[in-house]
Amino acid sequence: MRATRRWKALLRHRLGLLGAVLVAALLATAAGAPLVARTDPLGMHMTDALQPPSAAHWFGTDQFGRDEWSRVVYGARLSFLVGLLSMLLATAAGLPIGAAAGFLGGPFDAMAMRAMDAILGFPAILLAIGLVTSLGPGTASGVIAIGVVYVPVVARVVRGAVLARRREEYVDAARALGRTDWGILWRHVLPNSVAPILVQVTVGFASAIVIEAGLSFLGAGTPPPTPEWGSMLNEARQFMVAAPFTAIFPGVAISLAVLGFNLLGDGMRDVLDPRLPR
Amino acid sequence: MLRYLQARLLALAIALALMSVIVFSFVHLIPGDPVDAMLGTEVDQATKQALRHAMGLDRPVLAQYGWWIGRALHGDLGRSVQTNAPVAAILREKLPVTLELTAAAGVFGLGIALPAGILAAVRRNSGWDLGAMGIALAGVSIPSFWLGVLLILLFALHWRVFPSIGYTPLLHDPADALRHLVLPAATLGLGLAGVLTRMVRSGILEELGHDYVRTARAKGLRFSRVVAGHVLRNAILPTLTVLGLQVTVLLGGAVITEQIFAWPGVGQLTVQAVQSRDYPVLQGIILVVAALATVIQVLVDVAYALLDPRIRYD
Question: pTM above 0.80?
Answer without folding.
Answer: yes
